[in-house]
Amino acid sequence: MKSNKRIVLAYSGGLDTSIILKWLQENYNAEVICYTADIGQEIDKKKIIKNAKKLGVKKIIIKDLKNVFVKDYVYPMIRGHAIYEGTYLLGTSIARPLIAKDQIRVAKKFKAYAVSHGSTGKGNDQVRFELGYHYFGPKIKIIAPWRIWKLKSRTELIRYANKYGIPIPKDKKGAPPFSVDDNLFHTSTEGKLLENPKNSAPEFIFQRTTSPERAPNKPTFITINYKNGDPVGLNGKKLSPAKVLNKLNQLAGKNGIGRVDLVENRFIGIKSRGVYETPGGTLLLTAHRAIESVTLDKDTMHKKDEVMPRYAELIYNGYWYSKERFKLQKIIDLKRNKVNGSVKLKLYKGNITIQSRQTSSSAYSMKKVSFEENKTFNKSNVERFINFHKKKLR
């Protein structure tokens, strides 16, 4: 008897989600709808459709969210200068809330009773997805296969895939692949030999950055144009948010910029080692701090720096749609309307050098800062200033 119940699966077309798709069909009397959010990852739409249809799926939805992702998620995060544990630019973390939101939209549209994801039982993404699901669809059931099925290892997954004829991809060395997540903002690579922190990352795992040693011997120059705190174009040419980030990824990547090898503290309490590439995002972060340095006052900048660690932690932990994150975003964006102008960067063998900052803002005064004598800064007040602060030493 055909069921009228539906499950919406976050589906990439790869090994893990194809196995999950088959497992859902085996264990639930429901139609599975495959949903893919195109947020700039390397995507083969024909392969996604082919693999899903091969497993009997009738509804396959691929949604282009690249501009939404950059404009409404990446840019607000960059305005907050969010870096987790001093290193991680939160490339995976910031993508999950958007995917969860749109997946729930699809679930509501097709009156699905449940949604499902492919996040492992040891990772952060299960938290990020499920907090997003709960925020937008609190009555929709969540199925997390990795927490309930009997497939406990990569070896068992591959055995299951072989049983049902599910294709198993290979890495560049002909072995089963590393665990990879990518979107327009970043690429992360985890697992296999990277799990042991004593092992160096092999060069072949890097997907969007050239090593600094192999980068061009001539520098690249790029100017990022800002309006209301966000990039609106490059070199004076207006571009969509997705095109801005895509171009910056290309330029930074070929110049060896944006690689990090880190061990992070996961929200659920274990440490994890990964290699992340965020070329364009690294440029955006550097340039945004540069434009704010000549457009915002000291108190505003320091307040932003003060809230940043908590803001980054909220994003990392999956609390993008929380009251606390919304509150901090208001603090971060309080004077974003003053952040206008342009920043010119020099890119060379893994390094970023700020060449110039241009703005019509009056926050930076050449008259006050000049070493030439002028009457715009009263140096006689400095002694009173120092004496006032001496009293705070005791």
Helix-strand layout with pairing:
Elements: E1 6-10, H1 15-27, E2 31-38, H2 45-54, E3 60-64, H3 66-79, H4 96-109, E4 114-116, H5 125-136, E5 141-143, H6 145-148, H7 154-163, E6 179-182, E7 187-190, E8 220-227, E9 230-234, E10 237-238, H8 241-254, E11 259-265, E12 271-277, H9 279-293, H10 298-317, H11 323-332, E13 341-348, E14 351-358, H12 366-369, H13 380-390
Parallel strand pairs: 1-2, 1-4, 2-3, 4-5
Antiparallel strand pairs: 6-7, 7-12, 8-9, 8-13, 9-10, 11-12, 13-14
Helix pairs in contact: 1-7, 3-8, 4-5, 8-9, 10-11
Structure write-up:
The protein has two domains: 6-177, Rossmann fold, CATH 3.40.50; 182-358, Alpha-Beta Complex (Argininosuccinate synthetase, chain A, domain 2), CATH 3.90.1260.10. It is 38% helix and 20% strand. It is built from 13 helices and 14 strands. The chain has a five-stranded parallel β-sheet with strand order 3-2-1-4-5, with helices on both faces. A five-stranded antiparallel β-sheet has the order 10-9-8-13-14, with helices on one face. A four-stranded antiparallel β-sheet has the order 6-7-12-11, with no helix packed on it. Helix 10 (298-317) runs antiparallel to helix 11 (323-332). It is elongated and about 80 Å long. The model has no long low-confidence stretch (mean pLDDT 93).
